[in-house]
Amino acid sequence: MTTVQSAAAPPTAIRPRVVARTGLYAVLAANVAVVAYFFAQAGFASNALIVIGRLTGLSSALIMAFQLVLVARLPWLDRRIGMDRLTSWHRWTGFSLLWTLLAHVVFISFGYADGAGVGPVTELVDLAGTTQGVLRAIVALGLILVIGAVSGRYARRRLAYETWHFIHLYAYVAVVLAFTHQVAVGTTFTSSSAATAYWYGVWAVALGSVLLGRVVLPLWRNTRHQFRVSAVVPESDNVVSVHITGRDLDKLPAQAGQFFLWRFLTRDRWWQANPFSLSAAPDGRSLRLTAKAAGEGSAALRHLKVGTRVFAEGPYGAFTTLHRTRAESLLIAGGVGVTPIRALLEDLDGRTVVIYRVASERDAVLYDELRDLAHAKGAELHLVTGPPVPDKLAPHELTRLVPDLADRDVFLCGPPPMMNAVLRTLGDLDVPKQQIHFERFSLAG
């Protein structure tokens, strides 16, 4: 095994995640202020219901644009905040968007119905038939309602990612329809040349971000690097490592701890994208992923042929040494969650402690590599085996293994139940949140 010695970035008092999050909030707050100014400048209708309806409509437009930025997979944001957190924010702003859109329709319908002396449903039907852009807005609302329904926890757990992702693509159709509605009937949009230029700018930035992060960057990187499978190595009965080569990999901005969305361009799997972490720190010559057979996609990796073309989206993730706050670290891995942990160990200097939690020794994939790497780096390695109960990473057990736990950064990756239990333990031990680093695979459409 070849160990790549790379100097880890020193811990910094300036937390990249805080900087990025504060920047996003500041940009959003500034845009809210600008929208409020243009709304007031356009004047108010005599009917309070219409005023509220227009304001909720503008809020919906701003939220929709913000949502696009959250899922654009822009590298600067992704490296500092992480796709999982950005996806979580996208989900909650999505429900906010749904409610503001419904409020917009309700208040506008009741407001205009009050002036016309008809019912709100009759007025809405009349607006759809006589006012340019209203029918398109109703179609956009219907699409967003469908997307909101499949984004609920119950539906999301029962849909294949590809199905959910395909339905989610209709959100872009809804965005275009909503924008054309705003152009056609938005009083604030047309109130002044400055307001018109502002809204065109907002939508250009939002849609441009998606085009850049989701289309241009992946196509450019794959065209440049020409990824191919160079080796397929079984690690155990149900775990396999896939080695990837390509051109100019030293120019690929990948870090230990990150993951890619991998598409192996075979006849039956080209359409399926799977998120797998790098299981070795990038060395400029090759990449390696290691996956456990948990479904058809991951099980099929064992049968890949050398030379298979690969389309890789990424690198993604904030689970890197960029977020270190302390000179010393604790790495906790569970099961196949050892893959990014093993890669991170290559990037860390200082007195590092590694805890690898598995049910039995036969489940400890990559353990020989981890042991050799820990020896080479001067790290302390603990293999913890046994059933989930009793909890062998409970507070007293964890402090026994790592007495100076509170003075270390903690990097955690493993199955969700194990991660949740360890996070509770770290909370019980009063480990500061800024020293705890973890990431979940949450993919936004």
TrEMBL record:
InterPro entries: FAD-bd_8, FAD-bd_FR_type, Fe3_Rdtase_TM_dom, FNR_nucleotide-bd, MRET, OxRdtase_FAD/NAD-bd, Riboflavin_synthase-like_b-brl. Residues 222-322 form the FAD-binding FR-type domain. The keyword RNA-binding does not apply. It is a multi-pass membrane protein. Keywords: 2Fe-2S, FAD, Flavoprotein, Iron, Iron-sulfur, Membrane, Metal-binding, Oxidoreductase, Transmembrane, Transmembrane helix. This is Ferredoxin reductase family protein. The keyword Phosphoprotein does not apply. It is found in: Membrane. It holds the Pfam family Ferric_reduct. It comes from Streptomyces kunmingensis. The chain crosses the membrane at residues 24-42, 48-71, 92-113, 133-155, 167-185, 197-220. Its cofactor is FAD.
